[in-house]
Amino acid sequence: MKGLAITSVGYQAGGAETILVKIKPYLLDKGYIIKTLASDLGTDNEHFNDYTFKNISSTGPFKLFFFLFNPFSFFVLKRMLKEYKPDVVHLHVMHEITPSVLFLLKRYPTVMTLHGSETFLTKLLLWKLKPENFKHYVYDKKDLNMAGKFT
Fold it and tell me: Which residues 6+ apart lie within 8 Å of 112 measured at CB?
């Protein structure tokens, strides 16, 4: 079986990349073929990825466009899928590769592991608290009372 792992950076920067590096030898030992696609971020670090796409960092008027569509990741993945033809794709993060690649992956069994979910889940967790956990019953982190902070 041929697998494709996609992550934002191709060096050990966090949990997603560490797990890729640690699990790959076990999968290879079991007869799997694993290739990795990642951005060129962190050029000073040793990269483990097999395929690389150019990162786009935009703060200007095209920020939203590049958040949704990175032409470099899109076309590198398109070429890679044609050449490599993976049996399964594992997305570890979506940020650098951008959601546009989902159109390319619709013909491939794809799994996504959400890493770093705490960045948006903390806002959702407030809604699981009771009104009594807030000073003025306003569902805002700043309005939490001691019981709410402890909870």
Answer: 90, 91, 92, 94
pLDDT digits (tens, 9 = 90+) for 67-114: 889 999 999 999 999 999 999 999 987 778 888 999 999 999 999 987
| Whether 31 and 102 share a structural domain | yes
Cα torsion through 65, 68, 72, 77, rounded to 10: -160
The C-alpha atoms of residue 128 and residue 58 are separated, in whole angstroms, by: 35
Residue pair 93/8 in contact by the 8 Å Cβ criterion: yes
Locate the DSSP E strands across 40-133.
Answer: 51-53, 88-91, 110-112
- CATH code, domain carrying 49: 3.40.50.2000
d(CA 26, CA 74): 29
Residues 57, 92 share a domain: yes
Q: Which pLDDT value is given to residue 151?
A: 80
Quick one: 65 and 138 in the same domain? no
